[in-house]
Amino acid sequence: MGAKWSDEEREIVREIYKSTLSIEDQVHLLPGRTAIGIRAEARKLRVHKAHHANMSHSAMAVAVHKANAARAVEIDKATLAAQLGTSGGMCQADLYRSTGIDKKRIRRLIAEMMKAEQVHIRDYGSRFNSAVFVLGKGENAVRPPPLTRKELRLRHAERHGLDVVMSEKEKERRRDEMYRERECSWWPQADPVVSNAMRAMVQMGVSA
């Protein structure tokens, strides 16, 4: 059985329980006593530790994690703001390539920054009608309607040098040539004489 607690020691226990520090951080105030003994004496005195000061290790870890996450968010927002400020306008894909921040995280941070009126959409560009963001408060540009199939075909023809009035067979031949140039340059070109002969044999077989 431990030594009897003096009135001075009991007063120190009361002060320890009023403090925001943990019991373990203040056990040195009572030489010869332990944290377990201090808690036992506190129960006898019916004193209670402040809730935030008696935080468990797991709760403290959660609080630290939240604080670090909030700090990381502010750092990433500052990084995005710096990129937008020096570039004059960037889409989310450009921000990803220039900062390396995760795409989903960029999307969420930009949404938060737009809500806080820190950035706004200047216009829509690129082939996917991606929003171009700029730093500062402003009116968001209206997203243009999606292209129709006809407009998509025209744009595809312009980009790949296709004649819009080409027959489907001619377009298919042109696409085949482009694919061969990009992906299958190692594959030998078919002899047109042999190809025509094979095609004639197939047609004769179908008509027979």
What does this structure look like?
This protein has a two-stranded antiparallel sheet. It folds into 3 domains: 7-54, no CATH class; 58-135, Winged helix-like DNA-binding domain superfamily/Winged helix DNA-binding domain (Arc Repressor Mutant, subunit A, Orthogonal Bundle), CATH 1.10.10; 147-186, no CATH class. β1 and β2 (130-135) form a beta hairpin. By secondary structure, the protein is mainly alpha-helical. The radius of gyration is 36 Å and the shape is elongated. It starts with 6 loop residues before the first helix and ends with a helix. α1 (7-18) packs across α2 (35-45). The chain has helices at residues 7-18, 35-45, 57-87, 92-99, 103-115, 149-159, 168-182, 192-207; strands at 119-125, 130-135.
Quick synopsis:
This protein is mostly helical and 208 residues long.
Q: Which CATH top level class of the largest domain fits?
A: Mainly Alpha
* Helical/strand content category: mainly alpha
Mean pLDDT reading: 81
Gap between N and C termini:
113 Å
Count of distinct strands: 2
Main sheet: strand order:
1-2
Written as H for each helix and E for each strand, in order along the chain, the element string is HHHHHEEHHH
Helix content: 55-70%
Number of helices: 8
Shape: elongated
- Low-confidence stretches are none
CATH superfamily of the largest domain: Winged helix-like DNA-binding domain superfamily/Winged helix DNA-binding domain
How much of the sequence lies in strands comes to 5-15%
Radius of gyration: 36 Å
Number of domains: 3
CATH architecture of the largest domain: Orthogonal Bundle
